[in-house]
Each structure stands twice: as structure tokens, then as C-alpha cells.
């Protein structure tokens, strides 16, 4: 598979797995994908063929390609019930996402960087809406993982899903409420530091910024 086709596959795959394109929905037309990604029809057809091979879409002659129902997730997040579980999940994310950000700084494409920027803008705009801020927060982390160029990072973050953001906010224990009015401002600033490091292609700074962001989240959970 060509590099251009791979980029389209990863982008459409994230849209499908995140629910942006829901099961039963039709993929964008070949023409619209050519326009969006600035590639040839051959590259688009190669990408759609790969999505079909992966069991994500089914193509019908003369009708286009449609998203298939996704299998149920099997990640261990259902077992995250205690305060200790949440902290251990944060430890896990610190290791995985810091390295993904470092790779993103080395490998990201201009298109992927735009995706990270859009996710950051969305988070700034909807941050005071709890439900929408969870999706925007998750989208930012997912876009960084996609930009790593390694599908295992993006697949893992997709498997965790928005629950990895929601967990610290949906328990009855007051430590999870995070209702400090300055919290959003701090998180936006931390996201901006990650984005800036990736934008200037600085892997070590991207790793450090991600580690600081997630470590700060863990510390807020630990200190209440």
C-alpha cells in the first residue's frame, strides 16, 4: 500500500472507529475524497480496498461503500472501578501516549497536523460543556496517536475510547469531579504545548509535554 493510501486509510479508519461515520453510513464519494486529500482516484480506490479488506466497509457496485457494524470492544476498561485502577490507567497512558507524541513529532504529515489543530480548537470551544469536552479531549489524544504513523498506537487509543477521558469525571468520589474553574485553562495550555512541539517536529519536547500533561492529571487525581 502506498504512503498516500495509508494516510487516507488511517484517517477514514479513525472516523469509523470513533463513530464520526456511523455503521450503515455511506463513505464520502470518491470525488470528495480526491478533493479532500489531494490525491488521485487510484490512491482513493486503493485506500477503500484496504478498508474493505479490514472488514470496516462493504462496497456495492454503482452504490458506493458503506460502513459495517463494528465488533464489540474487549478492552479492560470495564474492569476499571477503583481509584487505584484509575491511577494505574494514567500510568499506562503516560508511557504509551508520551512515546506516540514523540513519534508524531517525527512522522506527522501536514494533514495530520491540521487534524490535531482542529481537535485542539474544538476542545477550546466546547470545554465548558462536559459531554462535548470529553469527545473533544479524546479526539485530540487520538489525532496525536494517528500522527505517530504506527497503527498500534491509534488502535489502542481507539479501543480505550472516550472512557479513558470520562473515567476520572464520572465516579461518585469528589476527587473525580474536577470542578476547579481553572482546570480547563490548564488542560488547554497543556494540549497547546503538545501541539506546538509536534508542529515544530521536536520529538523530545512532544514526549515531555505529553508526560507533563498526563502526570499533572494523575497528580490532580492523587491530591484530590
UniProtKB/TrEMBL annotation:
Keywords: DNA-binding, Transcription, Transcription regulation. CDD domains: WHTH_GntR (cd07377). Residues 2-70 form the HTH gntR-type domain. InterPro entries: GntR_C (IPR011711), TF_FadR/GntR_C (IPR008920), Tscrpt_reg_HTH_GntR (IPR000524), WH-like_DNA-bd_sf (IPR036388), WH_DNA-bd_sf (IPR036390). It comes from the Bacteria. Signal peptide: none annotated. SUPFAM superfamilies: GntR ligand-binding domain-like, Winged helix' DNA-binding domain. PANTHER family: TRANSCRIPTIONAL REGULATOR, GNTR FAMILY, UXU OPERON TRANSCRIPTIONAL REGULATOR. This is FadR/GntR family transcriptional regulator. It comes from Kribbella hippodromi. The lineage of its organism: Bacteria, Bacillati, Actinomycetota, Actinomycetes, Propionibacteriales.
Amino acid at each position: 500500500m502506498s504512503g498516500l493510501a495509508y494516510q487516507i486509510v488511517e484517517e477514514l479508519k479513525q472516523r469509523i472507529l470513533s463513530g464520526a461515520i456511523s455503521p450503515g453510513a455511506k463513505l464520502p464519494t470518491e470525488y470528495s475524497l480526491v478533493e479532500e486529500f489531494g490525491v488521485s482516484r487510484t490512491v482513493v480506490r486503493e485506500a477503500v480496498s484496504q478498508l474493505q479488506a479490514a472488514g470496516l466497509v462493504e462496497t456495492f457496485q454503482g452504490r458506493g461503500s458503506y460502513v459495517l457494524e463494528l465488533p464489540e470492544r474487549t478492552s479492560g476498561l470495564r474492569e476499571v472501578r477503583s481509584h487505584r485502577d484509575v491511577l494505574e490507567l494514567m500510568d499506562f497512558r503516560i508511557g504509551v501516549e508520551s512515546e506516540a507524541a514523540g513519534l508524531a513529532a517525527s512522522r506527522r504529515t501536514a494533514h495530520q497536523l491540521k487534524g490535531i489543530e482542529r481537535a485542539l480548537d474544538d476542545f477550546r470551544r466546547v470545554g465548558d460543556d462536559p459531554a462535548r469536552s470529553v469527545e473533544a479531549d479524546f479526539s485530540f489524544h487520538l489525532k496525536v496517536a494517528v500522527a505517530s504513523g504506527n497503527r498500534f498506537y491509534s488502535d489502542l487509543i481507539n479501543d480505550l475510547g472516550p472512557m479513558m477521558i470520562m473515567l476520572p469525571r464520572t465516579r461518585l468520589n469528589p476527587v473525580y469531579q474536577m470542578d476547579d474553574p481553572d482546570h480547563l485553562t490548564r488542560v488547554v495550555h497543556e494540549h497547546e504545548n503538545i501541539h506546538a512541539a509536534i508542529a515544530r517536529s521536536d520529538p523530545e519536547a512532544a514526549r515531555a509535554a505529553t508526560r507533563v500533561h498526563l502526570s499533572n492529571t494523575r497528580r490532580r487525581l492523587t491530591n484530590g
